[in-house]
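Hey,
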Amino acid sequence: MSRLQPVTERAKRTGSKLLIPYLVAGDPDKSHTVNIMHSLVEKGADVIELGIPFSDPSSDGPVIQRAVERSLENGTSLNDIFEIAVEFRKIDCSTPIVLMGYLNPLEIMGYDLFVKKALEASIDGVLIVDMPPLESKELHEKLQKVGIDTIFLVAPTTKPSRAKEIISKTTGYLYYVSLKGITGAALTDHASATEKLSELRELTNLPIVIGFGIKDGESAKKMAQISDGVVIGSALIEGISSLSTKVITQGLIEKSTELVKSIRYSIDSI
């Protein structure tokens, strides 16, 4: 069992909402990613989605694309990301880490080695954006065998029959993409998200979190009211990007993650 289950069960039991920040590993550099992760937890993060940099992040907007470029320029590899997780675990043994990215780096490493290293680095979940669930059997089974959750996305255009197939392969939590577009786009159609979440509730008891388009406390609160939690990505990375042009201090790191604290306050007020 991964760390996700006790965290999501505690949130359900207490009526709190999950706060899941996403950051790109190696941005602004590899040496400070761990400190940023600890700062996110201090600000109220329940789970951390750690992005795997890839040269063609097709579902991501310009903010995350630039973060990926900075990370790749720093030479960040998949092995570096596992080392980051190991370093984080020296202090924090309880906050779940979900690796989020694209399939190509995993294919290059090979599933067996990837799963082995993920287990050794105490990774709790894997979310591969461009892996169709029906083609995920091999990786899904290998991850399940060692207790690592497999998380999938559901989009506004996903039909109920397709959603059932996706849910059958999903553990940990289900990630609902709140809009038809790339990360960083504005979220405006709350009614559609509400309707879709109601449909998904009929299909699964898994926690459902909403990502894409959540920029501030107000948008986070609206989405948290209809879901089990929210994912904050581009807006957070925009703040982190300011570190790339400065001599990085702990004070600047704390300032760059302040958005997470404000969103924690907003969703806790529900």
